[in-house]
């Protein structure tokens, strides 16, 4: 097989040597426009896990890398005149030049032909090869030549950074945060070989411009950074290597191969340097490509197999890298945190490193975090909390007005579609009662509709008749009598998503018969074949406000501890908020403040009917996941308006506004929205969405990303989720008296 590799970086060289090693008869040529020693940057970073994986592919390269690496175990965070150290991270740094020399030497030893200082202007000139490996970096000529096939998306990030070097040795991977009159500057620094370290300086564009760095030469940049970080550099100078200020491009491609051309490394995908993953991804791509070609032999099948095998892992890491880069873009958001929490937030910024991970690596550090968090929880709730030993964050109390929750786990509202004419029955008693017994601090009943016409389906629960209040009181009384949980009601109106089937009969699909008239801010159906809602008049609005007031009063009679207004997921109030569904031209349409007018009228009216000592929350969709819809910035403004009107806590969800939404799913995918609102608005938040483990819950809470965590499907799977988490964490969560014998029970799982 004849192989042409375009690009002599880690991806191209490693792919070339692995393919040659797999079959010495392969004719492999690497084309690189630069000299071997002419490379951008200083050091690259690998984890122990990555090194182990590379060793499986080529032990000689791995051994050479290990012999030339500088290893460290600690991460140091310098912030607000404090230094926090976290151990157990096991990374190594390696000179990029050294890595390329190791790879090039191995290529030559195996018989790969290396052509440096040879630029390929048009990749079509190499199409006579059986395989063209495009590893020509973020500015890939190959990708651009065939962009209609690869369909790349490049997201150029707003922060500016410059990659510098220094002779100062760093005993740990080190972060500095330094504020001057221009703004906040971040430094990522690590040693990669004796006497040499990488020193990356990063700032928001406004800070960078204010300091005049947009006009600075390379020498002026170095002089500025040496002055700014004189104390941290301790007399050492900074060095440059094509050290210009850059913006990081997040690159994705819809496809990674076309005919016999395949993309590797930064040509296919990038991941931010703050997770040290670019070179890792590139070399892992090479391993996956070699394996696919070994397994399939046929080029087309091999390239398809390569992409199918690599894409999930790459996209998962890209999501983590995106969360990390956004943390550094928004570090100003966190500068008011206590230094210890700031350090924990930084360490867990990618949403991959958790409270549990860090506890395994450095239990002393996590003990400090937990003790601090428990002390703050005790101070704010007025409930004494032991800090010797401290409880895990999820088992600390939380206060909203006069309501005190025993812990910070909540059962998210989940529609059951099992009511008769709006009346909850034994199903609801068992469903909610079992989850309250399961140990959650707060249990939400499902979205409960404020009128018969407000129901999603004929099976949805309601709060519009006296008998509804009596039926709900039976559930509430059980929770209060037999558990330590509190219980909340979520009141809503389905709007244009009303009069549909039960979810298992056809989610959001109109009823085959027996439909009732539906309302919305604008006459826009959910599906093209859905009912067309009537555009609401002022009289309709007054009637809906009255329905919410009546429902709130009935909820008081039922004894609920907390009330939530549902203004998310494309239901009535959410339809007013989103510009996609609100096309009005009166005072209730147009700018966001106008679109919020009716939801706020509903909130104010319900607040007036709800006891002052009891809290109220609002569920919002932070983003519509659709062009022209609500964006995270808008949700900050929504939360700010809700706070001004007396909302105590915001339940931050996302999407479900339109059927053709384009969500970006992943672990804790909605948590960043709760995080942003909490810090930018200064209001308590609840995080929800793909939260499934106690490690996730403890991480979200300790990092200050939210105040409560709502779990839905996890509680369907395991009603006793909170008690099982307590068992795993060694926390003594008391059982109800009839189950007292469980206190001495030792479960076996094998």
Describe it for me?
38% of the residues lie in helices and 20% in strands. It has 750 residues and is an alpha/beta fold. Strands 5, 6, 10, 11, 12, 13, 14 and 15 form an 8-stranded mixed sheet that branches.
Oligomer: single chain
Coarse morphology: globular
Beta-strand level of the residues, as a percent range? 15-25%
CATH superfamily of the largest domain: Aldolase class I
Give the secondary structure arrangement, pairings included.
Elements (H helix, E strand, L loop, with lengths): L1 E5 L3 H13 L4 E6 L10 E5 H10 L1 H10 L1 E3 L2 E5 L2 E5 L4 E5 H15 L2 E4 L14 E4 L6 H5 L1 H4 L1 E15 L6 E8 L2 E11 L2 E8 L1 H6 L7 H11 L1 H4 L4 E2 L6 E8 L3 E2 L2 E3 L14 H19 L2 H31 L9 H9 L7 H7 L1 H19 L16 E3 L2 E3 L3 E3 L14 H12 L4 E8 L16 H17 L3 E7 L10 H4 L12 E2 L13 E2 L2 H21 L3 E6 L4 H6 L14 H4 L1 H13 L6 E6 L10 H13 L4 E5 L17 H11 L2 E5 L5 H9 L5 E4 L1 H5 L3 H9 L21
Features:
TIM Barrel, FAD/NAD(P)-binding domain, 26 helices, globular, eight-stranded mixed sheet, 29 strands, alpha/beta, 750 residues, eight-stranded parallel barrel
